[in-house]
Amino acid sequence: MNPLTLTLSHRAMDAVLDACRAAQPAEACGYLLGTELDRRVLFVVAVPNVAADPEHYFAIARDDTIETIHRALRLGLAIFGGFHSHPDGPDHLSVQDCADNAHLGPAFVHLLVGRHEAVHAYRILAPARILELSVALDP
Ligand SMILES: [Zn+2]
Asked: What CATH number is given for 32-137 in this structure?
């Protein structure tokens, strides 16, 4: 329930890390699905990174976003965030990430997997203002 904590099931965290390993050396990306109320990630949808330079940027095809929305509706879950990786760092959102994703608003949670699988979560309050959340695993 804490808006400053992002909680993932163990299975969801494993799915994020598996997607990041599989995508290397490119950045992995995808969506976090779960229950809106307590912001628990129960299901992860990894999608192809269609950026022109996927080792340094990520981009998601519109069709993959629409398919993920359908999937969330079928599962009765909400999309409340996304994830991507920085296999080569930095271990925080880049200036580009903030600029590209600020339009999603502060409710959208951004999970970032940095070097050595360091995991951080953020809300982008404004293009130059981010809030770091703590990341917790379901016991
Ligand atoms: Zn990034």
From this structure: 3.40.140.10
